[in-house]
Amino acid sequence: MIILKSHRDERRRKRIVRDAHIAKLKSMHPLEFEHYIADIFRLKGYTATVTPPTGDAGKDVILIKGSDIRLVECKRYNSPKVTRPDIQKFHSAIIDSNASCGYFITTGYFTKPAIEYVSDKPIHLIDLPSLLNLIEQTITENEMTKKVNKIQLT
Fold it and tell me: Where in this chain does the record put each Restriction endonuclease type IV Mrr domain (predicted)?
């Protein structure tokens, strides 16, 4: 069972590395982007469930780790910025789901009013540069975990 999980995580890691290129991220189908983001959080130890494409009630991915529930909203944009009303809708989803916090992830950027709105909210804004950092961090953490596991197995 551990070998299967390790193999599955390795496939996810390779996919994340392959798709990390900015052009690839921006050209993904929105649903593919949601699954890609879910895979990143799975490698970070969350159970991640992608919601149906329609009627998602303002959330694209539900994250669970222990009793902690977090939400993710994904916007794969090429040029428009995420606005305050987008963030307000997501904030309502966080409250309605009794989630501890949320991650609003975009391949674009956030407007100044959107950034100001979250200053006292449990929302993490992840724009394109932050997303690339998150991808790099996840890959590094995963590689370190693999090395530790390999040492423990020997």
Answer: 25-135
Bridge partners for 72 per DSSP = 61, 103
Tens of pLDDT, residue by residue over 9-52, are: 777 877 777 666 788 898 999 999 999 999 999 999 999 999 99
pTM above threshold 0.85: no
Distances (CA, A) of 61 to 58, 93, 94, 101: 10, 11, 12, 12
Note down the domain range covering 30.
Answer: 2-146
Cβ distance 76 to 28 under 8 Å? Answer: yes
pLDDT in tens, 61-78: 999 999 999 999 999 987
Q: What is the residue-wise DSSP string for 8-56? A: HHHHHHHHHHHHTSHHHHHHS-HHHHHHHHHHHHHHTT-EEEEPPSS--
Q: What CATH number does the domain containing 125 carry?
A: 3.40.1350.10
DSSP assignment letter at 1? -
| Structural domains in the chain (count) | 1
Burial class (CB in 10 A: 0-12, 13-18, 19+), 151: exposed
